[in-house]
Write a structure and sequence with these properties.
By secondary structure, this protein is of the alpha+beta class. It has three helices and seven strands; from the N terminus they run βββββββααα. The strands form three sheets. It has a three-stranded antiparallel sheet with strand order 4-3-5, with no helix packed on it. It has a two-stranded antiparallel ribbon with strand order 1-2. A two-stranded antiparallel ribbon has the order 6-7. The longest helix is centred in the C-terminal third of the chain and has 27 residues. It is globular.
Length: 237
């Protein structure tokens, strides 16, 4: 048994916290590892003749991860007024079918008025500050389609005791997605999930082939988003 904490935990050095949540029923969640890193304050940079906005370059194509932007060869450069403009360069639909896909990188400066601790949030894939990756929304697949019971157990655990929608959360979701009109963030996560299904199927087919099982590489080929129909989704915050 660990020490019982009744007040906030103070961390003064780089360390890894291991956390489990316990329900009144005694059921425990999986262990979460949270790395807390002690860092020195980043040095300030004096910039002359700044102009409002962000420098942005965009490339047409489908990119499931920020790292895939390295394969882009043709870029269009522009200046945008705000972070929201990064995701609104093409008209989108609720289903996102037939919408022109693109990836973008925006750069600029952050005005930090004084030394201190600041918190950042974003719907974009990554945020880098002073050459360091601050936020990553890669959308890691933690439970694939071959483990439906495990997935349902996780969803039941997260929703246990919640019988009504949480207003502050769905209002925030509606604001971020413009009442469901801009679902690009979640379309990207759906794309990651589908990519995982394709990768897992290919690995399963190869394992079956090497193990002497009967299978065909030519039938039931899954190519991408158009081979699936989204029935429902659960947003976890």
């Amino acid at each position: 048994m660990s020490t019982q904490y009744t007040e906030p935990i103070k961390v003064t050095e780089t360390t890894t916290l291991k956390i489990r949540s316990v329900l009144p029923s005694g059921k425990m969640s999986p262990v979460r590892n949270i790395t807390v890193e002690k860092q020195a304050l980043a040095p300030a940079k004096v910039v002359e003749k700044t102009t409002p906005g962000l420098k942005m370059k965009m490339a047409d194509g489908t990119f499931f991860k920020a790292s895939e932007l390295n394969k882009a060869t043709e870029w269009k450069e522009m200046t945008v007024k705000s972070l929201r403009d990064i995701r609104s360069q093409v008209e989108s639909t609720e289903s996102m079918r037939g919408v022109k896909q693109y990836g973008a990188i925006a750069t600029g400066y952050v005005d930090i008025p004084e030394d201190g601790v600041y918190y950042f949030t974003t719907n974009n894939d990554e945020v880098w500050i002073d050459g360091k990756l601050l936020i990553s929304n890669e959308g890691e697949v933690i439970c694939d389609h071959l483990s439906p019971k495990q997935m349902l157990d996780k969803m039941r655990f997260l929703c246990k005791g919640k019988t009504e929608p949480i207003p502050e959360l769905y209002r925030q979701f509606n604001k971020e997605t413009r009442d469901g009109k801009n679902m690009a963030v979640f379309s990207k996560l759906l794309g990651d999930a589908i990519s995982s299904i394709i990768e897992v199927k290919e690995e399963s087919d190869i394992d079956s082939f090497l193990g002497g099982g009967q299978m065909s590489f030519l039938t039931n080929e899954i190519k991408g988003l158009d081979d699936f129909e989204l029935i429902c989704f659960l947003v976890v915050r």
